[in-house]
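Lab meeting notes turned into a lecture example. A postdoc, R.K., suggested we walk through two folding results consecutively so the class can see how the record format repeats. The first protein's sequence and structure tokens come next.
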Amino acid sequence: MKLYRFIVLIFLITSSGVLAHEMRPAYLEIQEITDGQYDVLWKVPAKGMDQRLSLNLRFSDGVETLSEPVSGFVGGAHIQRMQVSKSGGLAGASIYIDGLERTLTDVLCRVEYANGTSLTHRLTPENSSYLIPEEPTIGEVIWTYLVLGVEHILLGIDHLLFVLALLLVVRSWKLLIGTITAFTLAHSITLGLASLGFVSVPGAPVEAIIALSIVFVAAEILRSYQGKPGLTERAPWVVAFSFGLLHGFGFAGALSEIGLPQSAIPMALLSFNIGVELGQLAFVAVLVGGYHLVRRLPLRMPDWSRYVAPYAIGSVAAFWVLERVVAFWP
């Protein structure tokens, strides 16, 4: 069985989830103002301007709310701000996210102290509470952002479709390694530059162009099937590097929503990028491994079936282009 036929099977199995939106994590930031007094920012993913995930923040006994929460919908999220206090500081207090166990998302919690130190923790549906420790650890930061990087790439269907489209063009292991390496290098560069503040690019146009990059590669696949090899087939690493720069800005946009711990920015950024790479390699490994397993099966598919994958990829990506361009206007 050829690779394109395996891809057809993947589309038939997963087509119901192709249009699903990425599940963004919720974000909790607690910033110390004075000894024992804190500003709280609670950010929950939302759809539109009136619907949000049913996640509610709660502190353990001993944490006093100083002001009534002020909330509203801003930029695709529901934002809530308030002030809390606890005599002696928050160390030893617990944070609870009610309703998290009924979702598929995570919560990134960051506590920033007045002395410049900070700690970061990831809450999950399986572990929806957090006991704030006395001292933050660098290991906790590394693990949190590593997992976030893996989750972002595996739940970012647009990035995965781009990689999938490239796999349909690449004809040899040597080209595959070079293509993946070029894509990795490119998005690592722009992810770092944007996250560190050296480059600033509007997120909405970037997301639209990312979708357009998938349309481009899908069209190149069709040209190849018609005996007219394009740039993607002749030099896939060039296309992977060029569009990889754009995808890096997309990763940076997601990371900016989460935030970076000020006391460990380089380590958190490196961990997130490594997580993205691990997730990407896992995706490629599953596809290649699955292809070699399925090719052993006595399945016969008509010749026209090879067009299903590029048309499906291109159609979904074209829909994203229109959806994201329309989103430019209120």
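The second example is placed directly after the first for contrast:
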Amino acid sequence: MKVAVIPARGGSKRIPGKNIRDFCGKPMIAWSIEAARASGCFDEVIVSTDDEKIAEVARQLGAAVPFMRPEHLSDDYTGTLPVIRHAVEWFVGAGHVVDLACCIYATAPFIMPADIQEGEKRLQSAGCSFAFSVTSYAFPIQRALRLADGGRVEMMHPGQFATRSQDLEEAWHDAGQFYWGTAEAWLEERMIFGRDSIGIPIPRYRVQDVDTHEDWESAEYMFEALRARARNG
């Protein structure tokens, strides 16, 4: 079977209640649940949470909450890998044969069903452990700066000062939307950012971390702009 696992713990400190806070007319987590269901890729779409309010909203939106996440996997320091491993282990323990699992973040309102479908397709065809969303940096990272004492500027890579931007290698980063993986890869907690993974490119205008209030506001502006463009054809 193929399962979508949406991690959504309670207790967010920077944006309280962000997983179920209203985002452009729906609870934030609704956009991830709806995209997962619309993709048609999954036998089960579940939410892994330790919070009863989140669990109730998830059920109302059509996701399953077959277990409550244990406390030791619900603190500020728990990473994604052990959370998805726990979910896969629960399905296996319930007698299911899990082939693939896809982690979809609860704060990914720009996720599209077609991207999820493409991730599954590329994972299967490449025979790798993971396939996940990536996007390109808007500016060459080789010309990044740091502000030292007193605001003095230093190049992180001084040797690139004279290199033209167009001659530098394009760099990519995790887009923070979805992560397809084989059951074995999740259970073994293999490293996602490595040669055994495939990147699924997402355009920058559909990528926004939502970790701070500034992030949230930026995401709302971007989302409304995309909706307006869609309405206007």
